[in-house]
Design a protein that fits this description.
heterodimer; A: 576 residues; mainly alpha; 22 helices; B: 263 residues; alpha/beta; Rossmann fold; six-stranded mixed sheet; globular; disordered C terminus; binds adenosine-5'-diphosphate; binds magnesium ion
Chain lengths: 576, 263
């Protein structure tokens, strides 16, 4: 008869495991808090990095669209003023779009056919390779090869047989090698020579186009031209070979207009009166007045109207002074008339047989008064032209000021935007230094390493905390085993505990990291970070971070849990 | 599932009855602890038989191998050589999960240090083995309360171990050891940390469990009053059973035992 019917021990339901773990964790809150903190730190770090790099990416993307109009304007200002040199032409040719705007321009300027342009493109592409080769050499290496020739002159230099011979003999002495075989380089040189007239034709055509464009643009700066000229006038550029898309014209005009308005506002500070008054308005010394202060002041309808008033006043001054000159002149003429009149009367009175002494005295008196008045007017008249000159000088910088309050505000906003864009641009440059475009989630390799190291540290930290927890609980674990706990239960117990701590730490870390990333984005990119905040992506990576926290904790708990599960139940009997 | 509840109804007799089934049998049980160069022979070949319902006291000086013996018959550790049969089941043949089953339902352990789970209340501690046995929580609670009533701690079911005296903790531990109606209770110096009076209360409780519930009890002790109530006594010395005394012999020798056993 067998009383004991040994069966497999039951597996505990997950809920029971969970309840047991919860009560255990509550008991060991401090240790749990440490683990939670470690996880929170690692996850927060990951989350901050992710949020930051995502924000940087979004902001950079937004920047591109934000700055595109301005870039377009700068590009065209450059195009109609600066001819490109041979090196730039090579760059352009190497990257040219077949049939694109550039292609058509070059075709017109150089009177080139498509096949010729294709050849030019091929030559330019090889030329870039050789350029890299030659620029990689230092002075001591390049001198024996090609003498004093540099840049595209090297290919000119090597056209003569003598120079080529020298090049060929010196070449083997180099540590570096030509990017292609010598024969290929030779054939490139001859191609280059053959196509050189074509390139020169393009450059010559371009110079002509620029000269013609200058005629159309006239005296003012190109920005002024783009700002004020009618679209038809701007499109005239097309007749010189430029390919200017119609929709670009509007953008260019608008941008140029804004730039012009900003400049107009800036110029008002050249007027002493306005500068003084602005200083008064802002409670600052005149010397402290800056353009930023001015724009800050006019960034609002009251300030803008104030500026319009000032400009009107300044421009009114010369007119008023001129009026005054006229008035004084009239006064002077009037007094002179009176003087002549009175002098005549006086002569008549004195010549009379019976001079009326009283009358003579009063006439003399009036004559003196008139003389005095005339002298006063003359003095005024002497001073007024100087005043007029000063007023005219003051009015000169604002002569072209033709914008109302509304435009002023828009221009001030635009300037503010441009300024912050520049700041953001430099932040992005700083943030993306060392970032490879192919980096995972926009991470640089350095950041990637940092994150990985933080994970390793996190896992080690948790594992250590868990191991200590296991050691402390030797007796408890052994007792549990005496009471029927299976190894699996002990294992699950510890891993579950760690996962729960990981969940808590992950949650805290995710929120913390999100806030930190947001803050850092804000510090770096200002409102652009907030308006371009990739919320849905960040939420997604928040989920990833959370899972990461749990997974890390689970991984970290495996070894300690295994140690616990392996513990012999007889340890419970041991008495320290 | 077939619960071996028959044990609880089996009446215990004063004398070892040859007709009674053997519940624990060891055959040439050896345990050597190897620590580097040194080999400690904790058990040097123990042959023993324990019958169902017996109350056995185990005596022996410290370090003689009593705890090791308990570890072997309790399925807590595996012997170096020899065999342990619990109700004719060879413990060595059981896998880890079956061993857990055995420890959970067939054997109860009572430790000198009580070994209660510190973060659980009295009743939670008592119901832990039931949870492992898969007993429904409500039923477990009811059974746990009955067990606490049995050990006289019904009113203190919500106390945590630190809020209880040593005696109360040990009684909780006894209630816990009875959680799944085991056939065997292994008590390793259950009163070692208790004062004399409390220790005697614990002994009385153990004897009552033996008499009323028919649980086979093996108890390491030095208390001659308990020894007097035992069915048999094993003297263990240097890893071997030096002597086994029947109950009728004990009555005669009691006086001597007390003197001999003082360390
Ligand atoms: N885990 C162990 N490792 C090594 N030696 C042990 C171990 N457990 C017990 N021993 C040794 O085995 C012998 C018997 O110990 P033990 O069974 O605890 O004696 P008792 O319980 O009778 O005091 C002692 O010499 C002890 O040092
Ligand atoms: Mg012992």
């Amino acid at each position: 008869m067998k009383q004991i019917d040994v069966k497999n021990q039951k597996r505990l339901s997950m809920k029971r495991c969970f309840d047991l773990v919860i009560s255990g964790v509550q008991f060991r809150l401090f240790r749990a808090a440490i683990t939670v903190a470690i996880v929170a730190l690692a996850v927060a770090f990951l989350m901050t990095m992710l949020t930051e790099s995502l924000t940087a990416r979004e902001v950079a993307r937004a920047m591109e669209t934000e700055t595109a109009p301005r870039e377009l304007l700068l590009y065209w200002v450059d195009r109609v003023t600066n001819p490109m040199g041979p090196a730039e032409l090579t760059d352009e040719l190497a990257a040219i779009d077949v049939g694109g705007p550039r292609w058509r321009e070059f075709a017109t300027w150089g009177s080139l056919r498509d096949e010729q342009l294709t050849t030019l493109k091929d030559v330019a592409q090889s030329q870039l390779e050789y350029r890299e080769f030659f620029s990689g050499l230092d002075e001591g290496e390049i001198r024996p090869l090609v003498g004093r020739a540099r840049g595209h002159r090297i290919y000119e230099h090597l056209q003569t047989g003598e120079n080529w011979e020298r090049f060929v003999t010196e070449l083997p002495n180099l540590n570096t090698q030509l990017p292609t075989s010598q024969a290929e380089f030779e054939s490139f040189l001859s191609d280059w020579k053959d196509t050189q007239p074509l390139r020169q034709a393009i450059i010559a055509g371009q110079s002509q186009a620029i000269a013609k464009a200058e005629e159309v643009i006239g005296d003012p700066a190109p920005t002024e031209f783009f700002a004020t000229a009618e679209p038809e006038t701007i499109l005239q550029l097309e007749t010189f070979g430029y390919v200017l898309p119609k929709d670009s014209v509007e953008t260019i005009r608008e941008q140029a207009g804004l730039v012009r308005h900003v400049r107009l506002i800036e110029r008002t500070l050249m007027v002493g009166v306005i500068k003084n008054r602005l200083a008064g308005e802002r409670n600052a010394a005149t010397a402290e007045v800056t353009a930023d202060m001015l724009f800050d002041h006019v960034d609002g309808s009251t300030g803008a109207e104030w500026l319009v008033e000032q400009v009107t006043y300044v421009r009114q001054q010369p007119i008023e002074i001129r009026q005054r000159i006229e008035n004084v002149k009239a006064e002077l003429a009037k007094q002179r008339e009176i003087i002549t009149d009175k002098q005549e009367t006086l002569a008549e009175l004195q010549a009379a047989d019976d001079p009326d002494e009283q009358e003579i005295a009063s006439t003399k008196e009036r004559l003196a008064a008139a003389r005095q008045a005339a002298a006063g007017a003359q003095r005024k008249l002497n001073k007024l032209p100087k005043e007029l000159a000063a007023a005219e000088a003051d009015a000169q910088p604002v002569a072209a000021f033709d914008i109302g309050a509304e435009r002023i505000v828009t221009a001030a906003d635009y300037r503010e935007d441009q300024k912050s864009l520049r700041d953001v641009e430099s932040s992005i440059v700083a943030a993306t230094v060392g970032t490879s475009a192919s980096g995972f989630l926009g991470f640089s390799t350095r950041t990637m390493w940092l994150v990985i190291v933080s994970f390793v540290v996190c896992v080690v930290g948790i594992a250590n905390a868990m191991l200590m927890s296991v050691t402390e609980r030797f007796r408890e674990i052994a007792t549990m085993k005496c009471l029927g706990a299976t190894d699996g239960f002990i294992m699950i117990n510890f891993i579950l505990e760690s996962c729960m701590q990981g969940l808590a730490g992950g949650l805290i870390g995710t929120v913390l990291g999100l806030l930190l990333g947001l803050l850092r984005g804000w510090a770096g990119y200002g409102f652009m970070a907030l308006s371009n905040f990739p919320l849905s992506q960040v939420l997604a990576i928040g989920g990833v971070s959370l899972v990461m926290g749990i997974v890390l904790s689970a991984i970290a708990a495996v070894y300690p849990a295994w140690v616990a599960a392996r513990l012999a139940p007889m340890e419970a009997m041991r008495i320290e | 599932m077939e619960e071996s509840t028959t044990t609880s109804t089996a009446p215990a007799t004063g004398r070892p009855d040859e007709e009674k089934p053997v519940i624990i049998r060891t055959r040439d049980l050896k345990k050597h602890y190897i620590m580097g160069e040194v080999t400690t022979k904790a058990l040097r070949g123990i042959d023993s038989e324990v019958h169902r319902g017996e109350f056995i006291s185990i005596l022996g000086p410290s370090g003689s191998g009593k705890s090791t013996f308990f570890n072997m018959i309790g399925g807590l550790d595996s012997p170096t050589a020899g065999r342990v049969f619990i109700d004719e089941v060879d413990v060595a043949q059981l896998n880890a999960v079956e061993l857990a089953f055995l420890r959970c339902r067939k054997i109860g352990y009572i430790f000198q240090t009580y070994n209660l789970v510190q973060y659980m209340t009295c009743i939670e501690n008592v119901t832990v083995p039931m949870a492992f046995a898969g007993v429904d929580p409500d039923e477990a609670r009811e059974r746990g309360m009955r067990l606490l009533d049995l050990v006289g701690l019904k009113e203190r079911w919500f106390h945590k171990p630190i809020e209880m005296s040593g005696g109360q903790q040990q009684r909780t531990a006894i209630a816990r050891s009875m959680a799944n109606n085991p056939m065997i209770l292994l008590c390793d110096e259950p009163t070692g940390n208790l004062d004399l009076k409390t220790g005697q209360e614990i002994h009385e409780l153990l004897v009552r469990l033996n008499k009323e519930h028919g649980v086979t009890i093996l108890c390491v002790t030095h208390d001659h009053r308990l020894i007097k109530l035992s069915d048999r006594i094993f003297w263990i010395r240097d890893g071997g059973i030096e002597r086994i005394a029947e109950q009728h012999e004990i009555q005669v020798e009691t006086g001597a035992i007390g003197g001999e056993e003082h360390e």
